[in-house]
UniProtKB/TrEMBL annotation:
The lineage of its organism: Eukaryota, Metazoa, Spiralia, Lophotrochozoa, Platyhelminthes. PANTHER family: ADHESION G-PROTEIN COUPLED RECEPTOR V1 (PTHR46682:SF1). This is Calx-beta domain-containing protein. GO terms for molecular function: adenylate cyclase inhibitor activity; G protein-coupled receptor activity; G-protein alpha-subunit binding. The keyword Signal applies.
Length: 199
């Protein structure tokens, strides 16, 4: 499969070492219970994004992407860290899906430096503490078209009256999303040229 680079930035004060947790959520992860999921007219926080997102658009953890739960430590003066989100490739017809990745704070310990997470408002320059990754629909999202087994070989007599007609049945499997149009062509043989077919 492929991977997506998630870049986390540390702004304002950069003194000392701080650790945050980067996690995926919304695809079946157990820690969604730790998030205040509330609908909102904006998408400033991970809780509002989860509430506003259509359930059908959600990718599934460990089926569409590798569940992420990583501690990320910024050393003194360090302003940027990159974490890879792995996308799982499969042969299942799927429409566009989304993965949510968010930053949370680890359990605090006495004397530990705890950063403040961006909340999406003007005071943070509208920076957020989450990212949305879209997995585009795959090449078979609207199914696989084939000739039905009982139509693969057909016998017809040219003496049939009034005009012989052969009916070829097509079948669509895997997914029924969206309308599909296919083109067809009658050939003299598998190796015939366009001139042969037109004769």
């Amino acid at each position: 499969g492929d991977s997506v680079a998630i870049v986390i930035r540390r702004d304002a004060g950069v003194s000392g070492s701080v650790t945050v947790i980067l996690r995926t959520v919304g695809g079946g992860e157990s820690w969604i219970s730790e998030i205040n999921v509330q609908p909102s007219p904006n998408n400033f926080t991970i809780g509002s994004v989860l509430a506003n997102r259509l359930a059908a658009a959600a990718a599934t953890a460990n089926a569409d992407y590798a569940q992420l739960d990583s501690a990320v430590t910024f050393a003194d003066g360090e302003t940027s860290k990159t974490v890879q989100l792995s996308i799982i490739k499969d042969a299942i017809p799927e429409l566009e899906e989304t993965v949510l990745v968010y930053i949370s704070l680890p359990a605090s310990s006495p004397g530990a430096q705890m950063p403040r997470l961006a909340d999406g408002t003007a005071k943070d320059g509208f920076k957020t503490s989450y990212a949305l990754v879209t997995i585009v629909r795959n090449g078979i999202y609207n199914g696989i078209i084939s000739v039905a087994p009982d139509s693969r070989e057909t016998v017809v007599s040219e003496d049939a009256s009034p005009n012989p007609v052969v009916r070829i049945q097509l079948q669509r499997s895997g997914s029924l999303s969206a309308d599909v149009t296919v083109s067809w062509q009658a050939k003299v043989s598998l190796t015939s040229t366009p001139a042969d077919d037109a004769a």
